[in-house]
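Homework help board

Subject: predicted structure for assignment chain

Our instructor gave us this sequence and asked us to write out the predicted structure in token form, then describe one feature. I got the tokens but I'm not sure how to describe them. Can anyone check?
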Amino acid sequence: MQSFKSIKKIQLTILNLLFIGGVYANDPIGDIVESTGIGDILRGRESLPHSVGSEIVLYDEARTVNGRMKIVLLDNEFIDMTEHTRVYIDEAYYDPNPDLSKLSLRMVQGTARFASGAGNRIRKKNINVSTPTAQIAINGTDFTTTIDELGRSLVILLPDVNGDASGEIIVSNQGGQVTLNEAYQATMVSSLDTPPTPSVVINNITPSIIDNMFIVNPPTEVRQAIEDQVADDQDQDQGILDVDFLEFNELEQDALEDTLEDDFSELDIDLLDVDFLTDLLDVVEELTRTTVSLADVQQTSGSGTIQLKGASIGFNKDSQYNIFIQDGDLYLYRNVNGVIEIIIQNGNSGFIETNVEGYSGLIEFGNGDPSIEIYINQSN
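My token output:
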């Protein structure tokens, strides 16, 4: 999507799917070798069966619901997807010179395993795997990613056939980076600007038991690393000499004035109000998040800022939009009675007016004169 000199208006009526994206290539880059249950391949606006033997092409989106899928690409890279998982093929170019070949994948949601190929057609340094909150640079590696609907990501390095580390990966984002080079070493990434947690080794697991349950119930080692990271952040600038004990007067506090946000405890948790796919990482977010207002300003990669009004980065409960910034572009995703996915390329300004079941509202984006107007109206 390019910048516009004059205002462009886009009227969209959604029934099942809305996609705004790029140009789709037709050359096969791989095949589906295993398939069970419910899922599909999204190619443009067309949903295709995910049957064994089906070809994969550039810009395909592989999706599972109550099913699983395994894809093998041209250099024997494989992508193994569990239930409720989405993976995009962003770039796949195989040149006779392996140094010129490139592969870029986006692990968007759920649990997926990626293993690099034999190395004859593409150099490992030219393979890029990303999640909504992290980039993963690989070196002859087999690893898994587990991602919730807000993009919070758990990355685990897997062993080779001898039980040793299968290689090395570097997990990075705007907050920092962590290197994983031991079997079952892991890190959790909560947001684009929160550093990955220090690496920990997870005990008593195998590749076969790594699935979406790690979103709901992370390994003890990972949970402890998150808690340690939060504690370090809170204590970084304060020592014992910085505390003024005369400040504290418990008799002056009115417990009845405490709000849920200021004094939230385990007793306040409503166990019946649960989304089992995201609750665990909601706890992670509660430990690490900072308040984001509806007039949110987010730094993009090397090209100024993107300003949002009427929504915030992350999951918006009112509109049910999941919003994040990746490679400078603004992504808006909603999956309620139909899928809405909108990608706004960096540098554009405008608004999205959404009128669908359960929500009507306006989201403004960008820093300049409006160049894009998007209207979304749902019809039965």
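Reply (TA_rk): Your tokens look well-formed. For the description, you could write something like this. The longest helix spans residues 220-235. That's the kind of observation they're looking for.
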